[in-house]
Structures are given as C-alpha cells and as structure tokens.
C-alpha cells in the first residue's frame, strides 16, 4: 500500500482493549498498510458508532477490525450498518476470559456476517493478516508481501530445533 489514507479501521469498545488490539496495528504496520485506531463503544457511543460504520466506505476504509470484550456488541453492530468486511476480535474479560466475547461475536444471525477470530492477541494479529489477504485480492504488492511473510514463517518453522 502506498497511500497514507487509512484503508483499515481498528476499532475497540474502550481504551483498555488496546493491549490486545495493538497486535493488529503492529501487524498492519509490518505490511505498510495505513490504518486508523479509535475507541467507538457500542454501548457508550452508539450514535458515533453508527455514524462511523455508515461513513467508513466513503472515507476509504475497506476493512474494519473490531475488538470487543464482555457483551461484545461492537463487531456485530458495525456489521449491521456497513457492507464492508468486519473482523471481530474477542477481547479477554476479567471473569469469563473472553469466552463470552467469542460467543457474542461468533453468533451473528444469518445475513449479517462477522469474521470471528481467536480470543486475544493471536486473534488481533490474525484479523490484521486477514485484512491484508482481503486487500491483497486487488493489490499485487500486498499479495507478494503476504506470500513472503508466509514463506518466512515456513522457513522459521522448518529450522526450529527442539531442546533434547
């Protein structure tokens, strides 16, 4: 990606979600994908959340990564208000460790899809990789970067030695 205008949005329900969602930001940065990161709470800022979802495409956003803990309504509510791909990342909660968030995100009704990822840091990083895959369908440079990333992962795994 050569433009500086954000094409991916990383949204979260509160500042405390950043510890998980920064993994998405770091992954996007490693691929030089411009993004914006914002707090847009489904419960505390519903009007702003709806406006964000409704205007995202016109502002150049092509994929939304939404992290949410607890009731985890953010990814689904965004998906209800946009036709952009939404990637849902369950953020671990204090008592249920993110299982509640996972179930809330993955149980979208037929017709309003949210791509759902693993709980926590790995889910945030994989959501960013998925966004790169989506963008790579129309961007050969990104597709090539992703192929190189996968090749490097393969080589690293192949060269691992086990302590005996």
The SSE order reads EHEHEHEHEHH
User: Which band does the percent of strand residues land in?
Assistant: 5-15%
**SS elements, strand count:** 5
Radius of gyration: 16 Å
Largest beta-sheet details: 5 strands, parallel
Total count of helical runs of at least 4 residues: 6
Average pLDDT reading: 95
Shape call: globular
Which structural class fits the helix and strand makeup? alpha/beta
* Largest sheet: spatial strand order: 2-1-3-4-5
DSSP helix fraction: 40-55%
Measured distance between first and last alpha carbons? 44 Å
Task: Give start-end ranges of low-pLDDT stretches.
Answer: none
Explain what this protein looks like in three dimensions.
The protein is of the alpha/beta class and 164 residues long. It has six helices and five strands, in the order βαβαβαβαβαα. Helix 4 (99-106) links the parallel strand 4 and strand 5. Helix 2 crosses helix 3 (74-81).
Secondary structure topology:
Layout (H helix, E strand, L loop, with lengths): L7 E5 L5 H13 L4 E5 L6 H10 L7 E6 L5 H8 L4 E5 L8 H8 L8 E2 L4 H16 L3 H19 L6
Helix pairs in contact: 1-5, 2-3, 5-6
Main attributes of the structure:
164 residues; alpha/beta; five-stranded parallel sheet; 6 helices
């Amino acid at each position: 990606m050569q433009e500086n205008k954000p094409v991916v949005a990383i949204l979260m329900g509160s500042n405390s979600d950043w510890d998980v969602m920064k993994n998405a930001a770091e992954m996007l940065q490693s691929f030089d994908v411009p993004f914006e990161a914002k707090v847009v709470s489904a419960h505390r800022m519903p009007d702003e959340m709806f406006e964000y979802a409704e205007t995202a495409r016109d502002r150049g956003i092509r994929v939304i990564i939404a992290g949410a803990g607890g009731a985890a309504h953010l990814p689904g509510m965004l998906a209800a208000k946009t036709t952009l791909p939404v990637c849902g990342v369950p953020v671990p909660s204090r008592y249920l460790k993110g299982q509640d968030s996972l179930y809330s995100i993955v149980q979208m009704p037929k017709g309003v899809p949210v791509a759902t990822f693993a709980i926590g840091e790995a889910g945030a990083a994989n959501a960013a990789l998925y966004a790169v895959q989506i963008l790579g369908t129309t961007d050969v440079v990104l597709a090539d970067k992703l192929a190189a990333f996968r090749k490097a992962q393969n080589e690293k795994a192949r060269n691992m030695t086990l302590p005996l």
